[in-house]
Design a protein that fits this description.
By secondary structure, chain A is an all-alpha fold. Chain A has one domain: MetI-like fold. Chain A contains 9 helices and no strands.
């Protein structure tokens, strides 16, 4: 491995970090909001809402993420919905994130002992209030590790956006392949950048877990 | 009598399993009623029907003039609507076997959460009330402790203070000493005894026969989903009429029914200065809890 080539590759690949992080951040925010909504639908008393949530999870966890991206980028324009590559990718990643994180959030909520909501109900609190103040804060501690796992997967999966022409890090890496016929150095650099980003995510997640820890 | 609680024809089934088979009783304002009986007799289910944590499948419950549930001629059940249920629950404090304190909140925050959110009390008023209540259960110095840093006895005393913060007209106690070490039960019972002396109306499901004898005005003995026998505490516990009551008391007391002189709880017996518990001084700590966090 030629370290000079490694250093030369860094700025070329890093130019795609903006697109990578943009897709990741938007998909995580939109997807998590959707996941919360889906998990509350799944736990609601309404059968239609339950079935919607179940159907959503079945569909978007059951087909490959790549197909979601292809659909948003190539198929929707034929239906008259035209997205830029980045937006199409964000749509696909958000659907994926909502479907996976909904399961994580739901299992976090149901892992909170029923005595907690009973005590809150017995005190006269509304469901909306005790979900927000009592149940979800306790669920966050439980859901954080699998939530982080999915978030890390999402970050790495943004490299699939290469295939819908988003100029993110993996696409720029391939550009080095074809322009300079250098492979090992750019691949090494790309891997290190992803590893750095996922490490930051793990640290942030540990911080959130710590903030929500139970004092014993 | 001025009935605060009226329960009539109460039934509860889970599918084919009939847990309550027609329960009738009244609780007068200021009365302390103990409910005893073997496990599986329906005591807890009956208690949970009163604030609708369980929905009865038959019968009528009225609390403080409000209809909790009622059964129509055709057998269909009618429950108070959501808003009414919340109003009824404000009137009814409940203390659970397993405390059910909110583990992510301090002792004080556990107490102030409902007054602030349900009654709209200001933070400073709620904190004043919370500190007063913590002081009354002997835990003024544990305001900032988290539940898991407290002993079982301390947690249950916080749970009682939390229920009292809503200024309920009725308190329900569901085997509140069953999940704590036996030597810590006394500190909980002492708080309850004090509450009874202050005139609180209390419905107490318990296995503590000496507490029932000492504090309750009336005892209900339940078995297999019915009230088998009821009467003044002393009469029922010392001279039960029904053979099932006699057999139960014999089993739990491991001997003949109680005699007249072995039934009172004193501070000395529970192992700490009960007189100090409610005084202005720093309370005596009966056991070593975890350190303050």
């Amino acid at each position: 491995m030629d370290w000079g080539t490694v250093w030369d590759s860094v700025p070329l690949i890093w130019k795609g970090a903006g697109a990578t992080l943009k897709m990741f951040a938007w998909a995580l925010v939109i997807g998590t909001a959707g996941a919360f909504a889906l998990s509350l639908m799944r736990l609601s008393a309404s059968k239609p809402l339950q079935w919607f949530a179940i159907g959503f999870g079945w569909l978007f966890r059951g087909i490959p993420l790549l197909i979601l991206l292809f659909f948003a980028f190539f198929a929707l324009p034929e239906l008259g919905i035209l997205f830029s590559p980045v937006v199409a990718a964000i749509v696909g990643f958000s659907l994926w994130t909502a479907a996976y994180q909904a399961e994580v959030i739901r299992s976090g909520i149901i892992a909170v002992p029923p005595g907690q909501s009973e005590a809150a109900e017995a005190l006269g609190m509304t469901r909306a209030h005790y979900m927000r103040r009592i149940v979800i804060p306790q669920g966050v501690r439980i859901m954080m590790p699998p939530y982080t796992g999915n978030a890390i997967t999402l970050l790495k999966q943004t490299s699939l956006a290469t295939l819908v022409t988003v100029p993110e890090m993996a696409l720029l890496t391939q550009r080095i392949f074809s322009n300079n016929f250098q492979f090992i150095e750019p691949i090494f650099v790309l891997g290190m950048i992803y590893l750095g980003m996922t490490t930051v995510l793990l640290i942030l997640s540990a911080g959130v877990e710590h903030a929500f820890r139970l004092r014993v | 009598m001025d009935a605060l609680v009226t329960v009539s024809g109460l039934h509860k089934s889970y599918g084919d399993l009939e847990v309550l088979k027609g329960i009738d009783f009244e609780v007068a304002r200021g009365e302390v009623v103990a409910i005893i009986g073997p496990s599986g007799s329906g005591k807890t289910t009956m208690l949970r029907c009163i604030n609708l944590l369980e929905e009865p499948t038959g019968g009528r419950i009225v609390v403080d003039g409000r209809i909790v549930c009622d059964q129509a001629e055709d057998g269909s059940m009618h429950f108070a609507d959501k808003g009414e249920v919340r109003e009824i629950r404000e009137e009814i404090g409940m203390v659970f076997q397993r405390f059910n304190l909110f583990p992510h909140m301090t002792a004080l925050a556990n107490i102030t959460e409902a007054p602030r959110s349900v009654k709209g009390m200001s933070k400073s008023d709620a904190n004043d009330l919370g500190m007063e209540l913590l002081d009354s259960v002997g835990l003024a110095n544990k305001a900032d402790a988290y539940p898991l840093q407290l002993s079982g006895g301390q947690q249950q005393r916080v749970a009682i203070a939390r229920a009292l913060a809503m200024e309920p007209a009725l308190m329900l106690f569901d085997e509140v000493t069953s999940a704590v070490d036996p030597e810590l039960a006394g500190e909980i019972l002492l708080v309850m005894k004090r509450l009874a002396q202050q005139g609180m109306t209390m419905l107490v499901v318990t296995h503590e026969m000496s507490f029932a004898a000492d504090v309750a005005d009336r005892v209900l003995f339940m078995d297999h989903g019915v009230i088998v026998e009821q009467g003044p505490a002393r009469d029922l516990l010392t001279n039960p009429q029904n053979p099932r009551t006699r057999a139960f008391l014999h089993a739990v007391l491991d001997r003949a029914p109680m005699t007249e002189d072995d039934d009172s709880i004193t501070a000395e017996e529970v192992g700490f200065g009960g007189a100090d518990l409610f005084s202005e001084q720093a309370p005596v700590e009966p056991e070593s809890g975890a350190d303050d966090g």
